[in-house]
Amino acid sequence: MPVECKAKNGRPIKLYTFYNRDFTRLKERFLGTIKDDYEVICRQEDLDIGHGAWCGGEAVWLFKTQFVIDAIKGNPEDVILVSDIDIQFFKPTQEIVLKAIAMQDIVFQRNAPVDVGKINIGFMAIRCNDRCLAMFEWVLAKIIETKQHDQRLVAAYLRDFPGRIHPGLFPHSIFNYNPRRADHGLARGIALHHAIWARTEEDKLKQMEEIRLRVKGSMFSFYVWKIKKMPSSGARALMDIIKSAIRKVLPGIAKPGHA
Length: 259
Prior knowledge:
The protein is of the alpha/beta class. The protein has helices spanning 24-33, 58-74, 94-100, 130-146, 150-160, 201-215, 219-228, 232-249, and strands at residues 14-20, 39-45, 79-83, 87-89, 106-110, 119-127, 167-169, 174-176, 192-194.
């Protein structure tokens, strides 16, 4: 059973990430929002992922899994973080990480706030031991053999080999976007946001801006942003409805001609 984890000798925890050359804006947002004194290892790659490939495609699954294996081998018994590049930070995360992995080998994001039993490997805390190494070496072999998604294979390993590794889940503050939720109330007060359910860099950045406004900005700013993204005819109609509602609540405000 793993023992409680603390940052070794006061050294910063290493945070590993990589990005494709086409995703430089995501890289800038990722690096520009980190709130902790992590030692960041960020690699630029030139992977053949295709435009909008689902979850990056096989080239990304192979590279990321080998990337994780190399990081584990290079940091024996340390705790490291491995992150996708489509993440933005709102608060410090180190305390959350250390608490989550205290008695675990590895900690995953929940794949969606309402799907507690499902994992997402976009932001992982990993204890660099033989158990974690064995799992990712198995995943790499299975990607080569079956061409299956790395995340699906990690989930299969946890299901098929219980007890070989001790996994945990981060709290909801390590947030994944879920478009099936009508209310993104969980986005308030979150520590980070992972922009899943979006394939292109442009779509991910749009989602990130939406969540940023929900977390940091006022609700007014959020709805103004949403209106600006609507077709002009729909935006005008919505603004008319909003002004009408405001006039009913606050007479004299938003009168015709004062928009």
